[in-house]
Amino acid sequence: MSSRRPIARLVLAAAVLGAGGLVLIVWSYLKVERSVAARGVQTRNPARTEPAAAALRNAEMTKARDLLESGDNAGAVAALDRALAAAPHDAEVLALQVRALRSQRRYTAARSTARRILDSFPRSPLAHLLLGSIAIQEGDAATARRDLQHAVDLDTSSALAVAQLGWLDLMEGRVAEAHARAKQALALDPRNAMALRALTRMSRSAPELRSLYERLVQANPGDPLDRSWLEVLRATASPEVNYIPAIAGSRSVACEAGPDGRLYLRARVGPFERL
Q: Would residue 105 be called left, alpha or beta, if left means φ above 0 and alpha means ψ between -120 and 50 degrees?
């Protein structure tokens, strides 16, 4: 059976079962932070960086982060290209470039960039983590599991890698394993957003969901979608939230082509709309 099928089935199920499921899947992408790069791998070229090149690298990195936060992914990629011209082997710059390329759904370019980290630092857990994350987005479950397991083997304290393996378990219907990995990730990092979101997909208890989303908002105060979900949950009087409404007969769902050629749903949660 193709390794793409479990993930494809999950996305199809989200399309049929409602916008909320798809939003939580699509919204749960990895944000590579400075601390991850610093912990997972030596981030700078061992050769001494010239002061002018270092200053250019730092300035372009700051600019790229601001551009990413504002949603200008193309501008961020251009800024990171300039940073990499000054520091070609800098793993932190490369990791941020992977994030920017993934935001554009340019998965082939993102994979090539992640492999540049692996080429410079063969035992880098960060490189395997990024490669596994890209494989998840592409629907390649077997490759994703292999790369993420490499990341965990190289760094057993990596909450990000454990949490992503948990999401992969959830996508493949291995709920018990997914729950255990989410709990393990949160033991390593109580603010791990991916693990918290995975738990939201495995609970129907409104009080538990409110608690999870309160933790998500605390971990990511700038995320408007988490705040929107929390408002919805606070407004409900029901003790349970049913993600799967009854469906009678067939349903047609309108899709739109994304820049990567795949079909996506336009989902709305509260006042927010996402493709």
A: left
